[in-house]
Write a structure and sequence with these properties.
The radius of gyration is 19 Å and the shape is globular. The protein has seven helices and no strands. Helices cover 55% and strands 0% of the residues. It has 139 residues and is mainly alpha-helical.
């Protein structure tokens, strides 16, 4: 009998950088606003749709050349990918979280926002917001 090999240790999962997540949210929101599939955009860039998914999630960083290609494919100035990022001095949003971009990028986000805005301002909106917060707190 030989020596037993120990299994390799799993790599620690590193969280996506807030800026990468933000760029991905802008990318996803713009792609959806134009009605484009991940496959269609990926083909324009010469990458796989899986790679585009990683960019949208912020798990892979977008290189300068890919960002330029995205800008052309989505008809969006490069600077727009960074709009809404805040300086680290703003402690409440130091991690670059942009709620509008997150809402638009969420699968049901645009429909939910539209339905919410169709409600008259006042107690119904307040109750719906309280309900959403309560459900979110569950899990």
């Amino acid at each position: 009998m030989g020596r037993q090999r120990t299994p390799p240790k799993p790599k620690p999962k590193i969280a996506a950088h807030p800026v990468d997540r933000h760029v991905g949210q802008v990318l996803r929101g713009r792609r959806r606003a134009l009605g484009l599939s991940q496959t269609a955009v990926a083909e324009q860039l010469g990458i796989s749709f899986q790679q585009l998914q990683k960019y949208e999630r912020g798990t892979n960083r977008v290189s300068a050349s890919v960002l330029h290609g995205l800008s052309l494919a989505l008809d969006l100035p490069v600077a727009r990918f960074f709009d809404g990022l805040l300086a680290p001095a703003d402690n409440d949003r130091a991690h670059g979280r942009d709620l509008v971009a997150e809402m638009i990028a969420a699968p049901e986000g645009p429909a939910l926002a539209e339905a919410f805005l169709d409600l008259p301002p006042g107690p119904v909106r307040a109750r719906l917001t309280a309900l959403a917060r309560a459900i979110g707190a569950l899990g």
